[in-house]
Amino acid sequence: MANKGMIDPSLQQFVMKEQQRQRFNHLVHELTEKCWDKCVDKPSNKLDSRTSNCLGNCVERFLDTANFVNNRTMSNARSPSSGFPQDSEMTLD
């Protein structure tokens, strides 16, 4: 009989991958919506150079900002005053 307190590692890994996939899909959707609204005045068959440059810059800024926020969140989560356990304190009992 399996111990009720134990979590199947393969199930835990599957859930983590699905959460990552969901975050990625949300990020792509948000990125598409924001950059489209900012850069595309009138949809057509081709992107003009201004729209193309705007979309490229928008994507770069959005990803830079997302990375900055993610890194800052991880840094704050690992700081001793955050209340989150440090890597050396984490256990999967």
UniProtKB/TrEMBL annotation:
Q: How does it sit in the membrane?
A: Peripheral membrane protein
Do you know which Gene3D superfamilies this protein is assigned to? Mitochondrial import inner membrane translocase subunit tim13 like domains (1.10.287.810)
Q: Where is the secretion signal located?
A: none
Protein name, UniProt field: Mitochondrial import inner membrane translocase subunit
Instruction: Using the UniProt annotation, give all residue ranges assigned to the region (Disordered).
Output: 73-93
Biological-process GO terms, alphabetical: protein transport
The UniProt entry, under InterPro entries, shows: Tim10-like (IPR004217), Tim10-like_dom_sf (IPR035427)
* GO annotations of cellular component type: mitochondrial inner membrane
The subcellular location is: Mitochondrion inner membrane
Enumerate the UniProt keywords alphabetically. Answer: Chaperone, Disulfide bond, Membrane, Mitochondrion, Mitochondrion inner membrane, Protein transport, Translocation, Transport
List, for all copies, the residue spans of the domain called Tim10-like. 13-73
At the top level, the lineage of the source is: Eukaryota
Per UniProt, subunit arrangement is: Heterohexamer.
How does the entry describe the domains? Answer: The twin CX3C motif contains 4 conserved Cys residues that form 2 disulfide bonds in the mitochondrial intermembrane space.
Instruction: Give coiled-coil spans as residue ranges.
Output: none
| Protein family (similarity comment) | Belongs to the small Tim family.
Chief subcellular location: mitochondrion
Q: What does this protein do?
A: Mitochondrial intermembrane chaperone that participates in the import and insertion of some multi-pass transmembrane proteins into the mitochondrial inner membrane. Also required for the transfer of beta-barrel precursors from the TOM complex to the sorting and assembly machinery (SAM complex) of the outer membrane. Acts as a chaperone-like protein that protects the hydrophobic precursors from aggregation and guide them through the mitochondrial intermembrane space.
